[in-house]
Amino acid sequence: MQTSAATDTKFDEQLLDLSSRIDAYEGYSHAHGLQIAEIAESIGQRLGMSPHDRYFMHHAALLHDVGEIVMKRPYLSESRVLTEVERQDMQRHSVIGEQDVAKRGLPRSVQLLVRWHHEWWNGLGYPDRLVGEQIPLAARIIRFADTYSAITNDRPNRRAASTDTAKQYLREFAGLEFDPLVVKTFLDIE
Questions:
Q1: Does residue 158 sit in helix, strand or coil?
Q2: What is the pTM of this model?
Q3: Are 134 and 124 a contacting pair, CB within 8 Å?
Q4: Alpha-carbon dihedral sign for residues 98, 76, 124, 38
């Protein structure tokens, strides 16, 4: 299916607008989704991902937390740590996001990346407890980039940490939360 440049531009603008609304809902004062997409692009290029795969990863990075605005939970904007019940409820956002992205007509690969962006390298993530390379590379990259961006930017319940603090956290969780190759690749770029 061929699309015109005008259609592609309008689609990209719609994704950026939705990403901005997600960021605002989550309490970010900057373009969190776009920052994740840019970090993911750098890592994806360095790891030799195809332009096709990076294109879908870009879309998933922009929309990774769309499930949160669909859920409309008030605790997201509160300056406090989530209760256990709220944390478990929040973990549903990746599946709800997958469903929302499907309703918007995005490709299945984007849907699955949204679903799996909270999977951990060691299998303790959610929603499917995938382990290691069971998690698609693009989802592993988004997981990493999302965490780096979240740590280094202000959130409603905490202040931004320094890049050095963030890098130390990422090193410590390489092989647990994050694919060690993704961590190494990012640190080599920086």
A1: strand
A2: 0.91
A3: no
A4: positive
